[in-house]
Amino acid sequence: MIRAVWQLRLGRICIVVLTLIALLGILGPMLAPYGPNDQDVAVMLQGPSAAHWLGTDDLGRDVLSRLLAGSTLSLVAALEAVGIGLVLGVLPGLLSMVFGRIFEWVSLRVMDALITLPFMVFAVAMTALLGNGLHQAMFAVGLLVAPAFYRITRAAAMTVIGSSFVEAARLTGLSELAVIRRHVWPKVAPAIAVTTASMLGTGLVVVSSLTFLGIGIVPPEPTWGGMMATDLNFLYQKPWGPLVPAALIIITVAALSGLADALRDATGQSGRSLISARRAKQARAKAARNAGGPVAPAGRPDDRSTVDA
Amino acid sequence: MVTVLGGQTTDVAPGVPAVGDGPTSPGTGGSGPGRTRALHGVTGLLRWVVRTLLVVVPVFLFATFVTFVLGAVSDLSPAGVVLGDAATPEQVAEVEARFGLDKPVVVQYLDWLGGLLHGDLGQSWFNGISVSEQIGQRLEVSGSVAGLALIIGVVGGVTLGLLAALTRGSWIDRSITVVCTFIATIPPFVMAMALIVVFCVAIPLLPSAGYVSPTVDVGRWLACIILPALALSADVVADIARQLRTGLVSAYQENYVTGALVRGLSPRRILFKHVLRNGSGPAITTLGLRIPALIGGAVVTESIFAMPGYGRFAAEGALRGDVPVVQGALVVAIVLVLAFNLVINAMLVRLRPVAGRGI
Known about the structure:
The complex is a heterodimer of chains A (about 300) and B (about 350).
Chain A: H1 2-7, H2 9-31, H3 63-98, H4 100-116, H5 119-130, H6 134-161, H7 164-171, H8 176-213, H9 224-233, H10 243-266, H11 277-290, H12 300-308
Chain B: H1 2-12, H2 34-73, H3 78-83, H4 89-98, H5 105-117, H6 131-166, H7 171-184, H8 188-202, H9 218-252, H10 255-262, H11 267-279, H12 281-304, H13 310-320, H14 323-351
Helix pairs in contact in B: 2-14, 6-7, 6-9, 6-12, 7-9, 8-9, 8-12, 9-11, 9-12, 10-11, 12-13, 12-14, 13-14
GO biological process, one term (chain B): transmembrane transport
Pfam family, one (chain B): BPD_transp_1
Family (chain B): Belongs to the binding-protein-dependent transport system permease family.
């Protein structure tokens, strides 16, 4: 799957960008020239200089160092949320195909209930009720992205589970679990990969929004969203302040949604089976001639329609 | 807000009596004469309403119960908020009894649910003022912003999506797609700050914070809500435009469009009666999926623009550990989302009867 994505130009760009950002998250704290919470009142709210490449904030803390230290927290939080969503969505999704009607009905209703909850309000409420911590907030976010995984898993599994080769496999005495592992999973995995990529983008946006509000973090701890909240208070003195954290968030989200598109193309879920880069190019040119422009990228209804088709 | 949605349906509505157009349009479904079809529509809609209620009511009960149990198991207590650290156990018990917290959780939930039916969401632990009253006062602020955001989102999204679909393949289409893809990656709070930098700091045109009621001054009201609404709607515009474009372009490739062309129907008639009706489903679904984000987005935009709205109320309540406020805010959000889902689903059913079969 990864090789097929690498063959696409879009996929290559996105993988490179995401690798760089991941490196930033892993090595960031080590690369930082100053401690993220070191204050130096002599250099408050300064512009970029040789000593402070991205300037300083209102307490004289080095913006670059805080940004690097904050990248780990922001990225890990998004990963954690999507990981929780993956487990809470995919497992019930697969089990609902196996465990009979009652489990199916109950799980469907629970997912319906979760999907009506507004993201931000629910995440805010959960952190209020469970205590103000990033893990609580991420659990809430994970719970909210679970329905997307649940639905995509069911939609993809549904196409296989009723087919005659699965029935034949069952008749030969293959256990339910083996059927899922051998026949259903290969069909479901690409769909889940696409959803994971696009949900990571959503997760990052929610994480940054929450930390922006000051929910889920204890103040001196740096995050991309939290830094922008500080910048908001000093927009009139430093209007370019939020530029770099904002750019980092946007680039990461864009790369993730690009990766979701590339995954969808590479796994033939967008109706185009593109194996080599050349054929990808040809097909894109052809699609542009027929339909005009690149096919619109991720979006939940899109996901569903592509799997249903 | 509903009138806005209605305004959009009128674009599509000419497709409804189009049964006479014959078998080329699969969206029209049934083959009988107009009247029986309309009757079918009514009973179908009724059945759909009943079925929807059967889904919505358990969902509502489940969601509220979860929030309530979470509130009960959290060790938050009004005593901590009201009395502070130096409270005696007797005082704590007295305060908890006043808020009804000495009863079992299930009784508390039923009490709360009973109050809910009368529009009573309990009292804030922090200042003892009725939660529903406080939310009611603030809904005007959030309603103004979300309403304007919805108008901008639908009008902007439909305009861009239509334009892109009608000029498909041209540079206009491509630039719309690129711009929308870019906008969709920008989180609302980043957009809000960008707007403040441009319209408040660089060109001091609009206020960067605050709210003025339209009953006081309509001009200043608009000036206050336009930036938050723009920040909230950017996502919606981009999403609707992309979904509408994709839907319309694929509808244009269907055989019934070729058929309609061959029969010499005008491009406008093809667009309104065949393509829009069949191609706008995904866009409307997207709008439905975006509604929770619009309502939830209030939490962030209201904090940025310092507006005394419902979202900021919820965020502040959360940071203070004010459980009734948080629960009340969540209930209002759930009710709003469910109501909008009903509207969206009704529109989808009207547009494509097939959609009514599986909720």
